[in-house]
Amino acid sequence: MSELFKNHPEIDPPEAPSRYATIKRWVLGLAVFAAAAVGFALLLLPAPHANAQGKGELRIGYQKSASLFVLQKSQGSLEKKLAPVGFGVKWVEFPTGPQLLEGLNVGAVDVGYVGEAPPIFGQAAGAQFVYFGYDPAAPRAEAILVTRDSPIQSVADLKGKKVALNKGSNVHYLLVKQLEKHGLKFTDITPVYLAPADGRAAFESKNVDAWVIWDPFQAAAEKATRARVLADGTGGVVNNYQFYLGARNFVTKNPKVIDVLFADSVEQGIWLKKNLRQAAELIAPLQGLPVDVVELALQRYEFNVKPITATVAADQQKIADTFFDLKLIPKAIKVHEAVVVAQP
User: Fold this and answer.
1) What is the C-alpha to C-alpha distance for residues 220 and 218, in angstroms, rounded to an integer?
2) pTM of the full predicted structure?
3) DSSP states of 221-263 as a string?
4) Is cis: bond before 216, omega within 30 of 0?
5) Residue 318 — φ and ψ, nearest 5°?
6) What's the gap between Cα 42 and its chain centre?
7) From CA 62, how far away is CA 123, in angstroms rounded?
8) pLDDT, tens only, 39-54
9) Domains, the chain, ordered by start
């Protein structure tokens, strides 16, 4: 049995139905998809699942904000480790997590890396994927921001205010939980659903009263505009895990490849945390951000991928239940049905 799955808690395997049409309608309904539609369509063109040498190929979906994957891609470390296993690597960039889930669902990539919320929406819409790893909690890497001169001093002050956020992302859950903590309901605020770039524009022009955003966009706003953190995920409000997702058949049939991916991610993550400035200098130009912004964001993330545990799956179930209660997803889901179970 693969080393990756030793001591892995048993979680029942899924019998998830195929509902590609449903998730496609869901993703098309997101505003951020319109801007990426033309480029993303090219990713869905049929492509052989092998590299030029006729060996296997690991196709990785990533977002430019995923600093560890950006570092791994730039260094070519994973390619070197996978060569003895007979696999090449193809990196496929997506603008946001929901589009990455769509790419995974239609077979454009084999694995991907996203936050907590996109898999919830994806599973509710019938997307075919499995969780197979997670990074430790990073509750400081997302926050509710207000301008430095804002009269808002507490989350309770958001009642009746306009709050910008990216629908279906981690910050959606953060906002819900922070409002609950301060005695408010989601209906007590006016959500303004905007992608990160549009959210920042609305925030800086004061067309919204607050902005809920994740790193490195959060760090960029703090550095450039001296935005003030009203609240983040600390204090047990949210975990803000990052998840490794994959096509079930690929993950279960290629345990050695997954082991190598984990090993390289852990190795690069350890180096990154020990060499924050140097890592930021490598990553910053690839993300189009100042070095000090990237360095601040890196301080707030943890990089030490592990197999999914029953506890982590249960925490993810709480998010799913919350979103269903708020009618943000069309049906109740069982997260454990999308968790891979290793075979001995």
Assistant:
1) 5
2) 0.80
3) HHHHH--EEEEESTTTT----EEEEE-HHHHHH-HHHHHHHHH
4) yes
5) -60, -40
6) 22
7) 19
8) 443 344 334 344 444 4
9) 3-136+241-338 (3.40.190.10), 139-232 (3.40.190.10)
